[in-house]
Design a protein that fits this description.
By secondary structure, this protein is an all-alpha fold. The chain has 8 helices and no strands. Helix 2 packs parallel to helix 6. The longest helix has 17 residues. The chain is globular, with a radius of gyration of 15 Å.
């Protein structure tokens, strides 16, 4: 059986080779980062990954749009403070995503993985939504349908 990191590498190969301009790879990276964050994780990695999930799940940002948001946030040279994450961070794992057949089924599983992980981290939502509004101008009340 593959380790979590080996499964991530396999899934990364798939997502990087994906021809969709939405850039699913960013969602894979952010979801894995949140699920595997530890005390030793860099706060910037945790905050950026949470913002990525928030922007994607709640505001319908594509992976490419999330990547651009990360680039905007990276311009702010500051000490990032990661919120306390819950112990359980979603009911799906990278292994379950990788087990889905490549193509639309795996892509849909990546979406479910993102949503499951973000749903498990709702305790972080107020801080992340406030940060996204303050630093990126993404209003917490704006829904994905309103952005379209």
């Amino acid at each position: 059986m593959l380790s979590d990191l080996e499964a991530l590498h396999e899934l990364s190969f798939y997502s990087l080779a994906h021809h969709d301009p939405a850039f699913l790879h960013q969602l894979v990276v952010d979801t894995f980062a949140v699920q595997h964050a530890a005390e030793s994780s860099k706060p910037i990695a945790v905050v950026f990954a949470l913002i990525g999930l928030y922007l994607h799940v709640e505001h319908g940002f594509t992976g490419k749009q999330v990547q651009r948001a990360h680039m905007r946030l990276a311009h702010y040279r500051r000490a990032w403070e990661a919120p306390k994450l819950p112990h359980a961070r979603g009911h799906l794992s990278v292994h379950e995503v990788l087990a889905a057949p490549a193509g639309p089924e795996r892509d849909a599983m990546i979406e479910r993985w993102c949503a499951s992980t973000w749903a498990a981290c709702q305790c972080c939502r107020p801080a992340i939504a406030e940060l996204a509004e303050r630093e990126l101008g993404v209003a917490a009340s704006v829904s994905a349908s309103a952005r379209a």
